[in-house]
Amino acid sequence: MEKEFYTINDVSQMTGFTTRSLRNYILMGLLSGEKIDGIWQFSPEEFEAFISNPNVQPGIKTKNNHVVYDFLSENKEFENKICSILDLNLSPEEMKEFNDYFCNAMNSCSTAVYKMEYNNGKMRAIISGPEDFVESTIHGWYCK
């Protein structure tokens, strides 16, 4: 199911910014969207413009680095986990399809994390979580 827009929660999930930070970006004019029935909605083009903004990119990169750092520094014994980094060359349309797929998948696993950054056709996606979930989700993307 392809989304026609992203909610503020989708943008938060993909970038790592809190919804409060995203609302501040809206007030500063760095994130454009439309509030419909009390819910912020962002078109794929508005989302791409936001994550491609040079003033926003360092924050996204920092959030992504923390996902990997937290994975590497975790000392607790849990289930088997994977942290995968995918570097992809994608058009804006392919990026949207990729984000739709992974955002929908993340809704079924509360312990999984998905973050991404995108600039000039180059996308880095970080997916971390239970081994079976991450493996099947990535496999599902490539075998669709």
In summary, what is this structure?
The chain is 49% helix and 24% strand. With 144 residues, it is of the alpha+beta class. The strands form two sheets. The protein has a three-stranded antiparallel sheet with strand order 1-3-2. The chain has a three-stranded antiparallel sheet with strand order 4-6-5, sandwiched between helices.
Present the secondary structure layout.
Elements: E1 6-7, H1 8-15, H2 19-28, E2 34-36, E3 39-42, H3 44-52, H4 57-73, E4 81-89, H5 92-106, E5 113-119, E6 122-130, H6 131-142
Antiparallel strand pairs: 1-3, 2-3, 4-6, 5-6
What does this structure look like?
This protein is an alpha+beta fold and 144 residues long. Helices cover 49% and strands 24% of the residues. The strands form 2 sheets. A 3-stranded antiparallel β-sheet has the order 1-3-2. Strands 4-6-5 form a 3-stranded antiparallel β-sheet, sandwiched between helices. The model has no long low-confidence stretch (mean pLDDT 90).
